[in-house]
Input
Amino acid sequence: MATSIEQTSTTLRRVLDGEYAEIRDRTRSWLGMPGHEPVYDLPIEEHRERVLAWTRELASEGDPAMGFPEAYGGQDAVARSVAAFETLAFGDLSLLVKCGVQFGLFGGAVLHLGTEHHHERYLRDIVTVDLPGCFAMTETGHGSNVQALGTTATYEPETGEFVVNTPEPEAQKDYIGSAARDGRLAAVFAQLIVGGENRGVHALLVPLRDESGAVLPGVEIEDCGPKLGLDGVDNGRIRFDHVRVPREALLDRYGGVSADGEYRSTIENPTRRFFTMLGTLVQGRVSVCGAGIGASKVALTMAVRHAAGRRQFGPPGGAEEAVLLDYRVHQRRLLPALATTYALHFAQDRLRHELHEVFTAEDPDDRSRRELETLAAGVKAVATWHATATIQECREACGGAGYLRENRFAALKADSDVFTTFEGDNTVLLQLTAKNLLTDYRDQFGELDPLGTATFVASQVASQVAERTALRELLGRLGDQLLPGRDDERDLLDRSTQVDLFRWRHDHVLAGVARRLKGGIDGGGDPFEVLVECQDHVVATARSWADLVVLEAFAAAVEDCHDAGTRDLLDKLCSLHALSTIERERGWYQEHGRLSPPRSKAVIKIVNALCAELRPHAEALVDAFGVPESCLGAWGRPA
Ligand SMILES: Cc1cc2nc3c(=O)[nH]c(=O)nc-3n(C[C@H](O)[C@H](O)[C@H](O)COP(=O)(O)OP(=O)(O)OC[C@H]3O[C@@H](n4cnc5c(N)ncnc54)[C@H](O)[C@@H]3O)c2cc1C
Output
């Protein structure tokens, strides 16, 4: 007979898996098969070999192809492929990243930046991994600032070829996945020079190795050497010495060159063109966001199971020591993180859905694209930071057992750490989020660089935002004084109170930064210096917005849940997420007169009470994630 933990976790899993239950279960089964469990003790070369073999095996079963068009062996199922990727994050993260490079980055660049002849020629071989490839954007000198890349691709009308070149050491491609060992073709991002004029960064397909794996003339490749983690991924550096590729090698969906050397693009504005091109690659960011949430689920499952069984200390003279999970401090270390992981799961549902809508729309408008970009940047940043912090906390919560490599934390920590850096550094992403929040006029303001942000804010946005939010701010202040039950603990459990507190924080921070930027520039300050002066405020704006959308997603999921018992449990969990976030920010709320000291103390009390109430459900809550037992180190249950 099923225990109540099993029953609760089964119902919860149905809610979590939602419409993607079938593909998630399929991926879980694959991970659960003997020989697919995460590895922790292989020499680097063997690990790489294993990961490539796994990638090919997965490809042979057709799953990684599902996000590609039907014509090339896929199913046009963008969201489903992201759900599969998120689930793959329960296993060896080197496999996840290798798949991300091959199908998401390399395949995605060919699909979204290329045109039919590229699709016809390459996509089938990419989805089967007959053509392993790379996505070569980052250089030693430039990572976040892609517009300033140094690699050049110069068109020669007399030969009809592009000459791809690394003009200086800083312009070598760096950290490129699959470059050191497996990649045969690379999507190389370079400044496109046509008729002596720089047309900005474009991508070209440049062969790296022949079929036997030998590096081609003019290409120089070097292994990046040992990394913090991801041993199974062969990251490398690439230098090009005047390598010639045909005109057709240019991925020309957004900009092409005629045989006689005329550059054409449907997007006139070069900045807008550049950001439109980058925007098509947002799937990688959405996928890494989901992978970070998946990694948090693995860590929490292990730590909660450990805490539910491990005994230390206890009442004097008691027959048994107490279970770790019965200690309030231990609950506080794990349960708010568990609640936030649920919140992020539902935010990821929204993100995946919006990705699917934009990518399957006939002709998505700029506004939808910008909203997707803003959401992806904000949620990716908070989700991957959450993963890093949660995995560390869970490792410590498992004591010495957490430190053994065979128990997964070592690799989980090391491999997921870089999620905060690749697919956009989190701090840079939050600045992108803030920029989009400050403007509804992205077409006129496409540059990510700080100078552009400050100038634009000064010229167009700040006054509108400041005026709009000043009124809200005033109403908020009045409301705070007039609302009944200001120090009532009970209303802190009202979802509307929680959401209002999050929204108030965001509106206030946004209004403040807009005022400061405008004031600084109106006062004659140099826009760049003004921005640098306010940069922490800019990042806080994005963070407060991301917190708000994550809470809104969780609140909506609670509303949508029709099973009363499950809904009640999710409701408590949502309150724990909301109030532990408010607790984290309680200094800010008090500084701004939004929480009185007694009410702020009440938040702490309610977080404690919610931890106690949720403690009996902790195991069911993690079992609901459905992490395969073979991926849980010492805490996996025998089949
Ligand atoms: C394991 C691994 C795999 C990778 N795989 C690939 C791949 O396959 N293909 C590829 O093209 N790239 C790849 N990358 C590169 C990755 O995308 C970049 O490392 C990333 O974009 C960050 O760039 P950077 O390393 O130059 O850091 P930087 O951009 O120099 O950032 C360094 C620090 O400075 C801060 N910073 C930067 N600008 C600002 C600013 N304006 N204001 C405040 N702070 C700022 C950042 O927050 C960050 O903390 C990979 C990297 C790693 C580590």
Notes: Residues 101, 105, 135-138, 143-144, 175-177, 227, 230, 235, 418, 421-422, 425, 427-428, 450 surround flavin-adenine dinucleotide (CB under 6 Å). The longest strand covers residues 197-207. The longest helix spans residues 328-360. Residues 140 and 169 are 8 Å apart (CA to CA).
